[in-house]
Amino acid sequence: MVSKADALAQWAADLIPAPADLALAQRSLIDTAAVALAAREHPLVEIASRLPDAARWSAIGHVLDFDDLHIESTTHISVVVAPAVLATGGDARAYLAGAGVMARLGTLLGWHHYASGWHATCTAGAPAAAVAAGVAMGLSTQQLATAIALAVPGAGGVQNAFGTHGKSLQVGFAAQAGVRAAQLARAGATAAPEALDAWVSLVAASHDDLDLTGPAVPGGLAIKAFPCCYAMQRPIAALREIRSQLHNIHQIHVRTPKASVHPLIHDRPSTGLEGKFSLPYALATAVLDSYPGFESFTDAAVNRAEAQSLVERVAVEHTPGGDGLLTGAVEIEVEHDESSHTSTRLADPPGAPNRPPTASEFDGKLNACGDDVPELLADATWDSVSVLLRRVFPRMG
């Protein structure tokens, strides 16, 4: 019986990207670089400056929580895979090989794995980064399987880190674990490919066969419109649709599948990072701010008296069922007084795979990441972005 590592390695080695795959890779490169550049002034930049390239760029690219997401696996694919590729001189094919492995492995791990508290971006990310770096380095199929197995010890991360620097740092650790595994496999290290099977049996609820069909990244990638957890994108977008109709808010009633807000662990946030994982604050910023951007997720913004007041007026009803962040729909009713209510319902927020960003929306995101970002990334290639990140985020210490 073929091991999962062997099957994934063979799929990656055989990958011939289609034009649509290459377009996705280019958008992912630009999106990942843009959100990293947006974090240039973040305190984590100095903290992460001690890390190797892949870990440093990955952690910085994730700290603002503005990077893309694969819905089916609940993983932030590009912020793990792209830095691994950029750090090892790879190209779009290396990215797509790693991204495809991450999507498939993360989907195999399943919603139960994520709902149990694992940070699937890290657990699926380390083996995927090993494939991305390994393809970039020109490893053989057997070496790719070995690299996947060598990345298993680094495949860890938990959701308790959400709202702290630990979240983005553990994503960086996953990217670097993959690069390290590929380097060791190239140097001649041996490992049992069956290690991945054994690990999956320990951390996943089911052990279904890998689905190696379809495009490089099945389901595509969701692009965020707001710099916060993906579980907040839909509630924010829904309330923004009726924002102009709101007045004298007495209470905000939210009805949503419990699975869709699983990562939102901070009901009463007191910091900007906690605010990125708070359903009540998602609604507060949607009401108070014309655009819930970077300034909406600072400590000062979260602790605004008017924001804290709105947070206290949010009532949430969790409906059962569902197995993902876009399961079902969110329903919001804003109560003005006993006889006046405004309601809205939304299934797919802007940027979702079924509602991809328009060229104008994507350009708007790039502009939000910095006035110079569109120009810096106007002719982005994997080589040019690698040079850019080394210049903007040099390794220190």
UniProtKB/TrEMBL annotation:
Ranges of residues in domain MmgE/PrpD C-terminal: 226-373
Name of the protein: 2-methylcitrate dehydratase PrpD
Domain MmgE/PrpD N-terminal: 58-197
InterPro entries, alphabetized: MmgE/PrpD_sf, MmgE/PrpD_sf_1, MmgE/PrpD_sf_2, MmgE_PrpD, MmgE_PrpD_C, MmgE_PrpD_N
Domain of life: Bacteria
Entry similarity comment: Belongs to the PrpD family.
Xref: Pfam families: MmgE_PrpD_C, MmgE_PrpD_N
Disordered: region residues: 335-360
GO MF entry, a single one: lyase activity
